[in-house]
Amino acid sequence: MLDFVQQLVSGIALGCVYGLIALGFVLIYKATEVVNFAQGDLMMLGGFFAFTFIGMLGLNYWLGFAGAVIAMALFGMLAERVVVRPILGYPQFSIIMATIGLGYFLRSVVGMIWGTDDFKIETPFSDGVLRIGSLVLAYDKLSVIAATIILCALLYLFFNRTTLGTAMRASSENMLAAYYMGIPVKRVVSIVWAIAAAVATAAGVLLAPITFIHSNVGLVLGLKAFPAAVLGGFGSIPGAVVGGVLIGVIESMAGFYLPQGWKDVAPYIVLLVVLLLKPEGLFGVHMRKKV
Amino acid sequence: MRFLFKTDYEDDIKLFPHSGYVVSYGILLAFLLIAPFVLSSYLVSQLVFVCIYATVGVGLMILTGFTGQASLGHAAFLAIGAYTAAYLQQFNVPFPVYFLAGGLLTGVVGALVGFPALRLTGIYLVIATISFAFIVEEVLARWESVTHGNEGMRVKTLSLFGQAVPQNGPTFYYLCLAVLILTIVGTLNLLRSPTGRAFVAIRDSETAARSMGVNVSLYKVKSFAISAAITGLAGVLFAHKLSFISPEMFTLQLSIEFIIVILIGGAFSLHGAVLGAIFLVMIDPFLTYLKDDLPGIIAGIAATFGADSITAGKIHGNVAAIASANGLKGAIYGVIIVLFVLFEPLGLYGRWLKIKLFFQLFPLYKRATFKRQKIYVKSERNR
């Protein structure tokens, strides 16, 4: 029983990691109906920025964290301006390919600048564990869980309660109509990329003690976070976190109870089954198309 | 400009609309036939890869380009074809039999993937095919009694009618070329048949196709099966060309490469698959060339513009360092993909059509002829 609970808790912690990255996917999708395949790579780049500020320049952890988030928000806007804005309005597949290209580019440029080694960021909570009874939980994992919950709540409120959030939802549904209603669509899209890059950076820095930072970390984790976002129903913020936690729990349970090899495949099998039964994900909204 | 006068439906669906096509494709074929005697063995080997990638590209084109179903899982189909060949070869099954078996098995698997894919569109379909590819990769790594797991499998030299066909020889090149040409002709025939018309109708509007009486489910599954089968055939050749296969060769990276093939070539015509394959395969020799010659060329240019020998030497060193940096290939891939999506969405074949039209209509060519329409009311959620 204790094993089960321990696996459950570490699964949830892992799932929050996926959820945190998946939030970025969902954000961009929710606001612009664009699927950003470079989300994991934005996270990786954010991690490297933070490593440069904290590890190489010796800044204070929180200061470096903030610096990285701001730098990446600007980078997100730049990426949107250069790569995404010219092709807004074209079929979704073009944009998917463009972001895949962006991901390739970021990965190899980072590899050229920082090298291909693993890097670690010293954090205030990188060691020490929380003990509840005989249950053990590391602080760095707790920090990820806390950050996921806070960010998820903040973004949920942002999208549902603020004017800017409403403007984002409007421009996702019909850019032209939103533009006619006086919403500055271009600026909205730009802001959403900035927010998504900032969220990705937060994920990257928080993950640094757990997964380390290397140029492929974004690809590896992004490929797990992506099913999480799909499982929750692309476009639902709580869905992303629930999907992430589900994938995390399934992965850690499969790693513990099933023979070797199932750990990596189980999330995908579950994903396929869910997609078969509910093609729009668990929390997705499905509307009929008018001809 | 040539005006074709069509009097019959048969004229409209001819493979060669007029004699110019026969001449130009004849010249191309003649060049391809003498290629092994003219080109270096390295280039011929690259040409074999072009043939294999182009065959996969044609397969993917049927699914993505003509039926409108995106797939990032084609590496898995290639893997199934390759492993079928490697497995059957152990029991001395002759090449023609396991070649067809590879295609057939992959086709069946493709149909099985097609059924669940029926309900999915857009991004959900992409992630479903990625998941499928991951599962296949893991199965290949774990099913050790058949696939030898991560150790991989050695593929013996191909033997055709008792003759050994080494993977570097001209005969193997001719074999791959023949498979490619047969695939292309077969696909062209498919596309002008009712089945192909149904595929295109589904791509353009599923709802409209359904209301015209097209059985959308049936044709989507057919498209998956045919696309997978062609990829499986290419997989058999791929296994022989590499003479060693292991699960980590058939990753998402490879699937993305296949998508790049049709994206760069132009995802609306079979020419695109071939052009894209040429581009993707020839990028390697091009990068080698960059590494070897570019520093010298740039330093030479600098010297002619008055840089002294020390500066020129520095420039030489810097350019050499950049050109031989690790991972340069990835960066170039990335930039190329982005540039094509932004500026040449119709791909290389689209560029060729534009140039051709420019000269046909000279001086009346309008750039807007090829302009894509932007649709801002796109919400794919409402589909």
Automatic annotation (TrEMBL), chain A:
<feature type="transmembrane region" description="Helical">
    <location>
        <begin position="95"/>
        <end position="116"/>
    </location>
</feature>
<dbReference type="GO" id="GO:0006865">
    <property type="term" value="P:amino acid transport"/>
</dbReference>
<dbReference type="InterPro" id="IPR001851">
    <property type="entry name" value="ABC_transp_permease"/>
</dbReference>
<dbReference type="GO" id="GO:0022857">
    <property type="term" value="F:transmembrane transporter activity"/>
</dbReference>
<keyword id="KW-0472">Membrane</keyword>
<keyword id="KW-1003">Cell membrane</keyword>
<feature type="transmembrane region" description="Helical">
    <location>
        <begin position="12"/>
        <end position="29"/>
    </location>
</feature>
<keyword id="KW-0813">Transport</keyword>
<feature type="transmembrane region" description="Helical">
    <location>
        <begin position="41"/>
        <end position="59"/>
    </location>
</feature>
<keyword id="KW-0029">Amino-acid transport</keyword>
<keyword id="KW-0812">Transmembrane</keyword>
<dbReference type="Pfam" id="PF02653">
    <property type="entry name" value="BPD_transp_2"/>
</dbReference>
<protein>
    <submittedName>
        <fullName>ABC transporter permease</fullName>
    </submittedName>
</protein>
<feature type="transmembrane region" description="Helical">
    <location>
        <begin position="136"/>
        <end position="159"/>
    </location>
</feature>
<comment type="similarity">
    <text>Belongs to the binding-protein-dependent transport system permease family. LivHM subfamily.</text>
</comment>
<feature type="transmembrane region" description="Helical">
    <location>
        <begin position="188"/>
        <end position="210"/>
    </location>
</feature>
<dbReference type="GO" id="GO:0005886">
    <property type="term" value="C:plasma membrane"/>
</dbReference>
<dbReference type="InterPro" id="IPR052157">
    <property type="entry name" value="BCAA_transport_permease"/>
</dbReference>
<keyword id="KW-1133">Transmembrane helix</keyword>
